[in-house]
Each structure stands twice: as structure tokens, then as C-alpha cells.
Design a protein that fits this description.
four-stranded mixed sheet; 139 residues; elongated; alpha+beta; Aldehyde Oxidoreductase, domain 3
Length: 139
């Protein structure tokens, strides 16, 4: 399951979907909007994405993960739109037979989403809104 969504990410639902009885390990990474990206307290982050390209890249990342590690399931969901401090912006989950594979695959997943997916964010504070450096489209 890979997607971008405007909906709140339900980590309980993700856990129910990633878990299976043949997996001895489940690793879940959640990224949250933090209040301290810059010199002022952040009030919210607006995420925007090139949706079709993000879907293609997520499929490539998923394929790479299944080729590199012996895992059972992979889930990656990134939220777009306006998010408040504390909300989940991204979740990556992996289930596998053993923990090392699950940790490595999950780390690879989030690292590559951040490096390769055309998702941009604009931070808003009490005094300004500004776009932060994002991914350049080159894939």
C-alpha cells in the first residue's frame, strides 16, 4: 500500500494492515510536524506534491525494497495539505521475518521518499510563510 493523501494518517490502521502471522518483525516510522524548523515556532506546514510522479517513485522504491530485502509487506503514505504541529506527515511500515531486514528496509524507504519524491513544504509561523528547500524533479 503506497499513497499520498489529504486524510489524517491512522497509524492503528497501518499497523493492522502491515501485521501478519508470518512476520516476526514490524517496524513503523512516523514523521511528525515539529514546531522548531526555523528560528520561530512553526504553527503549521503545508505539503504539496506532484502526485502522479510521487506515485511512480513510491512504486520504484517499493520494488527496490522487495528486491533488496526479504520482507513480507511495505506501506508508505505521505500526507499533503495543511498539517498542524504534532500531526503525522508520513508513515513507512515494513513487516519481515527478521528485525534487521525490517529496520533496513524501513530506513531505506523513508530516506528515499525524502530524497526522491517531489513533495514540497511551506512553513507558517506567526510572522511569515515560506517554502523550504524541496526535491528537484530529476527522476
Amino acid at each position: 500500500m503506497i499513497s499520498i493523501t489529504k486524510n489524517i494518517i491512522d497509524q492503528s490502521y497501518v499497523f493492522s494492515q502491515i501485521r501478519d502471522n508470518s512476520s516476526g518483525a514490524v517496524v513503523i516510522f512516523t514523521g511528525h510536524v515539529k514546531d522548531n524548523i526555523s528560528d520561530e515556532k512553526v504553527e503549521s506546514i503545508f505539503y504539496e506534491a506532484y502526485g502522479e510522479m510521487v506515485q511512480e517513485i513510491l512504486k520504484k522504491i517499493e520494488k527496490e525494497i522487495f528486491e533488496k530485502w526479504n520482507i513480507n509487506k511495505f506501506i508508505a503514505i505521505h500526507r499533503i495539505g495543511n498539517l498542524a504541529v504534532g500531526e503525522i506527515s508520513v508513515i513507512v511500515a515494513v513487516s519481515s521475518y527478521h528485525r534487521r531486514e525490517a529496520f533496513e528496509a524501513c530506513s531505506y524507504g523513508i530516506d528515499n521518499i525524502k530524497k526522491r519524491c517531489p513533495i514540497w513544504k511551506k512553513e507558517t509561523t506567526a510572522s511569515y510563510s515560506k517554502w523550504l528547500n524541496g526535491v528537484k524533479i530529476n527522476e
